[in-house]
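Project standup — Tuesday

K.O.: blocked on the structure for the chain from last sprint. Re-posting the sequence here as requested.
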Amino acid sequence: MAAPRRTQEERSAATRSRLLEATIECLVDYGYAGTTVARVAERAQVTRGAQVHHFPTKENLVISAVLHLNELRSREIVAMIAPLEGSPELVDRLLERLWESHRGPLFVATAEMWIAARTNSQLAEHVTEVEAAVNVAFHGSRTMSSDFRDAVFTSMDAMRGLVLSSWHLSEKDQQARWKRLKRQLEPLFPQ
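H.V.: unblocked you, prediction finished:
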C-alpha cells in the first residue's frame, strides 16, 4: 500500500527544515565566510531555486536558521525549569544545561554570525532578532522572577565569554574553567 502523498505545505516545510539544518551545519564546518547558499542547497539536497524561493539571501538563510534553533533551545530550557521550581537541583541543572547548549553546534553557528555581523551591516541589522528571541522565551516564563532571569542572562554572558576564550584549550582545561565559573555563578541565583 502506497504512503499518502504529502501536501505542498508539508513538502515546503520539509524543504525549509532541511535548509535551516544544513545552514547550521555549514556555519559550523566552514564558518560564515565559507557558508555559501550553493553549499547549503547542496547539503540540504535541494535545488538552488528552491533555496532562493524560501530564503532569498544568505543573510535571510543564516538569521532564519539561527533564530529557529535558538527559539527551540530557549523553549527547551524554559520547559526544563518549570518542573524543577523549588527543587534544590534547579540551579545546578539549569547551569549545566546552559553550559551544554553553549558548547554545541548552535552556539558555534551563532558565534560565527556575531563575528560576521561586526563587518557586515546587512547581517548586523538582523542579529538583534536572535537575542530578542532568547529574551522573549525567558521573559515569557511565568515561573522565573526578574532576579532569576537576570542571573540566567549573566550566566549566559559569562559562558559565552568562557567558550570563546577557551576553544583552543583541551577538554580537561575547559571543564576546569567551567567548574570554577559555575561556583561563581551559583550564588547569583535567588534562593
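K.O.: great, moving the ticket to review. Residues 32 and 118 are 12 Å apart (CA to CA). The mean pLDDT is 86.
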